[in-house]
Amino acid sequence: MSDSVLYAVSEGVAVITFNRPAVMNALDADTIHGFCAACERAETDAAARVVILRGAGPAFVAGGDVATFRQNLAGMAELVPALAGELHRGVLALRRAPKPVLAAVHGAVAGAGLSIMLTCDLVLAAAGTQFSLAYSRIGTSPDGGATWFLPRLVGYQKAMELMLLADAVDAEVMLQLGVVNRVLAADQLSAETEKLARRLAAGPARAYTETKALVNRALHDGLAAHLEVEALAFARCAVTADFAEGVTAFVEKRKPAFKGA
């Protein structure tokens, strides 16, 4: 980790915090390296059953550090592949992570910050949050997976509108589009995210792992092949202690006490 990206685990919940509040957590080289390291750590951290991404200060992530781009215009041909490679390693680690990944966003979510948010499994947003795929404003195309994730969430034409026009969109619109799951009062965002994370951390971990893997595979598989994969995943869940507890609690008409095993 680095000072610009913090990592902490408590009671099964890992929290990755972008920590450059003075510049709205804009992504420079150090922050991108820290993000990648934190994501790869969270992916394999046995102590973490849920992951939260958040931003310190007034914003989640306001995109790339454009000042850094300006200072390195002559070297962008070498700089971009290196930094994009690190960013994309982090994105892939979050998507592979066999556990739910939540984003708690507020303030500004722009450029690569929006791409990172789209990687997450669930998104909670503070009311008043402003979202923008601002890449076209600096004369470039999106990275971080935005062109892969967004059309799958909102459809081709709406995705193109958001990317080509780069207009700011508020949290309520993103909720209607299905890009965020919940919009909360700003003073409730942290507590409600923690509450949801604790709920997931107390849930059937293997079932969550299999569900996430299945949904990601569904973006590529044909139906017949996917039905076979679903059956195999169910069978793996059915031999766990959590499954035994779940069906027993159902029959006994009580709340299950999952152990993540």
Show the helix and strand layout:
Layout: E1 5-10, E2 13-18, H1 29-44, E3 50-55, H2 66-71, H3 76-96, E4 101-105, E5 108-110, H4 112-119, E6 122-126, E7 130-132, H5 146-154, H6 156-165, E8 169-170, H7 171-177, E9 182-184, H8 189-201, H9 205-218, H10 223-238, H11 241-251
Helix pairs in contact: 1-3, 5-6, 9-10
Question: Can you offer a commentary on this structure?
Answer:
- The protein has 261 residues and is of the alpha/beta class.
- The chain has 2 domains: 5-201, 2-enoyl-CoA Hydratase, Chain A, domain 1 (Alpha-Beta Complex), CATH 3.90.226; 205-251.
- 50% of the residues lie in helices and 15% in strands.
- It is built from 11 helices and 9 strands.
- The strands form 2 sheets. It has a 6-stranded mixed sheet with strand order 1-2-3-4-6-9, sandwiched between helices. The chain has a 3-stranded mixed sheet with strand order 5-7-8.
- The chain is globular.
- The mean pLDDT is 92.
